[in-house]
Amino acid sequence: MISSENSAENNKDLKEKEPLKIILAEDDNDDQELFIEALDATKVPSEIITVQNGEELVDTLKNESEPKPDIIFIDINMPVKDGKEALAEIKNDKDLKDIPAVMLSTSNNPKDIEDTLNKGADLYIQKPSSFKGFILILKKVFVLYWTKALINPLKNIFFISENNIPRED
Predict the structure, then answer these.
(1) Does residue 71 contact residue 22 with C-beta atoms inside 8 Å?
(2) Nearest to 132 by CA among 44, 38, 3
(3) Long-range contact set of residues 42-45: C-beta below 8 Å, sequence gap at least 24
(4) pLDDT at 24
(5) Which helix (H) or strand (E) holds 116?
(6) Average pLDDT value for the chain
(7) Mean pLDDT (whole number) for 44-64
(8) In 28-110, which ranges are E strands?
(9) Which of 46, 117, 133, 166 is least surrounded by CB atoms within 10 angstroms?
């Protein structure tokens, strides 16, 4: 079971490790900025690359000169190639399929959630309405990542919304 005590220990251990390599596929510049600011607020050592659509994401992942990321965050609704198409392509590629993929969407539509789970996503996040909510969600994602819970996603923890995360006030 994941507790806040475990996550505090994980945070302490991680500060001594290499920064997490993250790719964010998000076409909205304001959402990119919000994500990066929330990520900074988590105090998780990280390096982030942003891309504007699913095609750029797949091209970046297939670029041999770029190091493979530890985790990718993919917006569902993007131009050129949407997040679901990019996810399917990534999970069908033997060299990319093991990279944890976290879907981002304003939607909490059960069809979107089920569809991305079936395509191989490791987690589905409903974009929060507040900055504090985004920080809480990212902390939860990294606790799941560090505890290896993203390796075989469980349906009962696949969908994360700021409404289903306990607040630490």
Answers:
(1) yes
(2) 38
(3) 42/135, 42/138, 42/139, 42/142, 43/11, 43/15, 44/11, 44/14, 44/20, 44/138, 44/142, 45/14, 45/15, 45/17, 45/18, 45/19, 45/20
(4) 94
(5) helix 110-118
(6) 79
(7) 91
(8) 46-51, 71-75, 101-105
(9) 166
Q: Does the structure show a pLDDT above 80 at 125?
A: yes
Q: String of b and e for 12-43 (b: at least 16 CB within 10 Å)?
A: eebeeeeebbbbbbbbeeebbebbbebbeebe
Long-range contacts made by residues 29-37, C-beta under 8 angstroms, separation at least 24? 31/75, 31/127, 34/131, 34/134, 35/73, 35/134, 37/131
State the amino acid at position 42 in one-letter form.
Answer: T
Tokens of 160: 């994360």
Task: Determine the straight-line distance between the first and last CA of the chain, rounded to whole angstroms.
Answer: 21
58: exposed, middle or buried (Cβ count in 10 Å: 0-12, 13-18, 19+): buried
The candidate with the shortest Cα–Cα distance to 121, out of 79, 71, 62, is 71
Give me the residue label for tokens 């304003």: 106
Question: Sorting pLDDT into bands at 50, 70 and 90, what band is 1?
Answer: very low
Judge whether 93 and 63 are in contact, CB under 8 Å.
no
